[in-house]
């Protein structure tokens, strides 16, 4: 029976879904909704419950508690093949003894026996969509990893699913192919507008492809929002450091005026920030500054905030340069700069000015990740 309160624009709704494995609570009363046509990504560290959530949606695992509806209908007891889902997993498991054509046609044949002409038309459409025309007679072993992934997508989409489930679909590809397939999957999503649930631990994949990102931690969703919003206003220090890099710091509120807080760090550096509602004078205040929000300048500079710092390390990547810096009371800062043609890079040991404005300071609800947030440099000069 359709739920009379169900929103027809909602493809999936999970309410209070829980799952425990051997006394370990893996999902903790999880709520999640996916709108029709939406691309939603579950992003989080290993073990936070992303795949468990996806497997419950797929019907491959039963939850211990909670409710699930698909297209407004209770789906808790619906067998997987009746859920009208398309699935692509990390190991894309094409049938090795079948041609590309037969691999893609497989799902259609499982649904019933459409005429050979209908099967051919649909498979051709899919090959066109994933940009593999002419590959229908090949076997998976004759295809590159990226091409196999395109076939896996075509196989998942050929039946016209209501919801496409993607579990780490790009993690077996090398970095260049992964970037190419991110853009491909986004293009296919924009063409078909099929509602999609992606599971990944890659912030880049999440930022590039999603309409909304749900950041998971310990079996719960900590923050759900569109990519640009989650990046600009992550709220917690965990989300701030998981979606992007950040300098997370802790200070004390010295003054509060019209929603603006004056914050001092233990050694006297100070700054102003948009205040969070729970901040009080004399209380602790956590905040973050993204590496790209610091302007690194050689000497005195006019800006709302200017901190003196010393370059402790540098990594040059061509289009960008990352500096590790130490300021008084903030010994581990990271700044990201765009080297200008003809401009010079700062050397290790050099004194610089770090300039930023109030709008660059992200107020946070907690300082859990303070000091540990910015990813370490991997190559140095
Ligand atoms: N069938 C199972 N039996 C026992 N424990 C399980 C089972 N499946 C998952 N777990 C445990 O549940 C937790 C969450 O697993 P899940 O695969 O959902 O995490 P994830 O966020 O997808 O992480 P990853 O990216 O590493 O797969 C992990 O601690 C995992 O070891």
TrEMBL record:
Gene3D superfamilies: 2.40.50.100, P-loop containing nucleotide triphosphate hydrolases (3.40.50.300). GO terms for molecular function: ATP binding; ATP hydrolysis activity; transmembrane transporter activity. The keyword Nucleotide-binding applies. Residues 12-243 form the ABC transporter domain. GO terms for biological process: quaternary ammonium group transport. Signal peptide: none annotated. InterPro entries: AAA+_ATPase (IPR003593), ABC_SmlMolc_Importer (IPR050093), ABC_transporter-like_ATP-bd (IPR003439), ABC_transporter-like_CS (IPR017871), Mo/tungstate-bd_C_term_dom (IPR008995), P-loop_NTPase (IPR027417), Transp-assoc_OB_typ2 (IPR013611). It comes from the Bacteria. Keywords: ATP-binding, Nucleotide-binding, Transport. PROSITE patterns: ABC_TRANSPORTER_1, ABC_TRANSPORTER_2. Belongs to the ABC transporter superfamily. This is ABC transporter ATP-binding protein.
């Amino acid at each position: 029976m359709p739920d009379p309160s169900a929103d027809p624009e909602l493809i999936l709704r999970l309410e209070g879904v829980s799952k425990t494995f051997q006394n370990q609570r893996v999902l903790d009363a999880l709520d999640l909704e996916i709108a029709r046509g939406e691309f939603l990504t579950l992003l989080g560290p290993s073990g936070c419950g992303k795949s468990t959530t996806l497997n419950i949606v797929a019907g491959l695992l039963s939850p211990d508690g909670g409710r699930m509806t698909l297209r407004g209908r209770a789906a808790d007891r619906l067998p997987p093949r009746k859920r009208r889902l398309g699935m692509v997993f990390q190991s894309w498991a094409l049938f090795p003894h079948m041609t590309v054509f037969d691999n893609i046609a497989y799902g259609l044949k499982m649904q019933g026996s459409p005429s050979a002409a209908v099967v051919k038309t649909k498979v051709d459409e899919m090959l066109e969509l994933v940009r593999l025309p002419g590959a229908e007679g090949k076997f998976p072993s004759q295809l590159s990893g990226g091409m196999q992934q395109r076939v896996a997508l075509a196989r998942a989409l050929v039946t016209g699913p209501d919801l496409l489930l993607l579990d780490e679909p790009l993690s077996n590809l090398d970095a260049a192919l992964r970037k190419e397939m991110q853009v491909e999957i986004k293009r296919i999503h924009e063409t078909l507008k099929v509602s999609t649930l992606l599971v990944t631990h890659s912030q880049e994949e999440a930022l590039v492809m999603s309409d909304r990102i749900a950041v998971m931690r310990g079996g719960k969703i900590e923050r759900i929002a569109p990519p640009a919003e989650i990046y600009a206003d992550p709220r917690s220090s965990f989300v701030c450091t998981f979606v992007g890099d950040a300098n997370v710091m802790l200070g004390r509120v010295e003054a509060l005026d019209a929603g603006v807080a004056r914050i001092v760090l233990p050694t006297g550096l100070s700054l102003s920030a948009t205040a969070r509602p729970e901040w009080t004078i004399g209380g602790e205040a956590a905040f973050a500054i993204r590496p790209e929000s610091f302007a690194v300048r050689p000497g005195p500079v006019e800006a709302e905030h200017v901190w003196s710092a010393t370059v402790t390390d540098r990594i040059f990547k061509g289009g960008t340069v990352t500096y590790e810096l130490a300021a008084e009371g903030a010994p581990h800062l990271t700044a990201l700069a765009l080297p200008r043609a003809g401009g010079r890079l700062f050397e290790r040991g050099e004194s610089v000015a770090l300039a930023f404005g109030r709008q660059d300071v992200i107020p946070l609800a907690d300082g859990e990740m303070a000091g540990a947030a910015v990813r370490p440099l991997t190559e140095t000069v």
